[in-house]
Here is the input.
Amino acid sequence: MKFTSAKKLAGLSVLLIFCFMLAACSDNEANGSGDGGSKDELTITFRGGGGSNEGLVEWLNEEVIPQFNEEHPDVNVKLSPLKVNEGDYFAKVALLLKSENTAPDLVTEDTFMVNSDASAGYLEPISDKVKGWDEWGNFTENVKAGVIAEDGEIYGVPYNTDSRGLWYNKKVLKEAGVSVPWEPKTWDDILAAAKAVKKNMPKDVVPLWMNSGKATGEATSMQTFEMLLYGTGDPLYDQDKKKWIVKSDGLSDTFKFIDQVYEQDLGPDLSKALNGQGGTIAYQQLMPQGKLGIGLDGIWQAGTWREGGPAPWPESDKDLGFAAMPTQNGQDPGTTSMSGGWALSIPSKSNNKDLAWEFIKMASTKENNLNLQLKDRSLTPREDVAEEEEYQQMDFFEEASAYLENTHFRPAVDKYPRVSTVIQTLVENVVTDKLTPEQAADQYKKEVTDIVGADKVVER
Amino acid sequence: MLRSIFFLLPSWILLLVFFVGPILLTFYFSFTNLALTGTQAQSMEFVGFQNFAAMFEDPGFRVSVMKTIVFLFLSAIVGQQVLGFLLAILMKEKNQAFRRIIGIIVIAGWVTPEIVVAFCWVAFLSDSGTLNMLLNSLGLESITWLYSFPMISVCIANIWHGTAFSMMVFQASLDDVPKTVEEAAIIDGASKFQVLTRIILPMVKGSIVTNMILVTLQTLGVFTLIFTMTGGGPGTATQTLPIFMYNQAFVNYQLGYGTAISLVLLIIGIFASLFYIRSMKVQI
Here is the structure.
């Protein structure tokens, strides 16, 4: 009796395990053959939630998806946003794209990740598709460069680009005794204006906001560090020699400037600055409340204040100015900016690549791209949209477009994302007084050399 | 013999697939340059001990080890262990209602999920949080607790969360100390302190060690609490090893390096356990 019940138990266990394995396998299959269902599904992944990309979501829901459904009534377009802060988005996307079961059919890629994700085999090259597409000629050449990887293939279609400058609250600056319109010519002019705000305005007014922590991720590298660095004349990467510049006066001076801002209490409280929500605090709360003098950030912030945006501010066109970022000492060409942008890419493990391409084509038409910029307030990657009157009349469009003249792009190489995280950590360490600017510059040299290899670095 | 192997087979399979497998995989990945993105995501290479060599040269690693030790010492050993023991002693032989009320309050911290604990403490300690509101109402200035005292803040949160566990372990073992032994000691003229140090402590030594190991291992792995409260910052102020590992694997995209760090964390856990067992001379 005892023996039989034990036998039964063992048999049952084995049976259970088999069932378990079988279930796991069949689940896999069901996911793998997504095409076979009665209604095709096209999933789109982007960074959403918490006020980010509201314009993009509105545009997808109201414009592109209804149009797409008219032509493809049997396709269900599903938005699957990643509700994470900027720093986490890229890791989450990489994890999603790794597996066939989780890869969406379309993903929005910041162009600085295109190279890296393409070399990881996560993205589908679409060069052939693009070549047969008559609209491609309307895209600006330097924006196209952002989606071409080192292997020469195209991995996405850009839907926006941007430029960066100094947002300033005219009322705050005027009250602080700074003449408006404010046109700083050197870094010292920026510090002088910030000092005036600190001296003449109440204590709760933040003079100058620059993204400075690891939590704000790429925004710390690009909107702060690189906006300064490229104004010194020393870039991150020597395009001709194909080497990273790990030591230069520009690097040291950039760390020094950041240090000065916080050393002299011209920046925000660190408890706010080192927060992942830093950008939201600065531009959705402080700036509209008149509690922020100057903010170094991108044109897309205008989308924050538009009607229907996350923090509508109807007077923003009158109360705000968008000044060009000056070069360090006013040296030629006088101003500097950084540009990036986002693209729609097809993951290599997508189940619906052809449909995804149809979607990209539809989303990228002249009319749709114009509609996106009106909602999202970024710059267009299309030359024909840039000529539209409606586009040109957008607030701050004129300034932002003018900055494109002296703009720079991040190095389009595989290792950039890792160098960028080194920058973020070092900036945070300087800001929190863990490192002096000199130590940070030395540390930069050491860490970047470790990442890219001693044969790929150069000193200036 | 054959029959017993047959019966154990299912548990063997489960153990291999869900326990040994991941550990071996971690072990393997820690010797590669596997990355989350870039060329090394698709063609990783075996790099030998390179990750470990890099780790010991990495100032970030040294900082994290120090932070881990501080966090472990303050929140697990001093905080949870000592506070848990004190609570258990104070509650010993007190009346039932009193025990129950204290017990419920302390255990509330234990049953609350880590992420909820973290949010509660963020709400309490943040710039515009409850504590600052209280201070303001008393006419005092706000203090940026999470920024100015990050390590203390996360330690207090961890103590709040974990003390109940130690308390329960000690309560159980204190109840096992025979009352007659204590009474005999008191009749022989021993003070209360002597009863505690000469009678009770030696008799519950085993529980102390077991609890120390469990609390240490649990605290070594604390991630959610710190990540939610401070993100490991400001700077590297609360960057313990799990946070450092996360940053390397998912922020710097270096999965190979990240798994190497996790392996070191595992080894630290093993050594800490052995150290406790040896130093307290007990048999487990």
Notes: Residues 59-91 of chain B form the longest helix (33 residues). The mean pLDDT of chain B is 89.
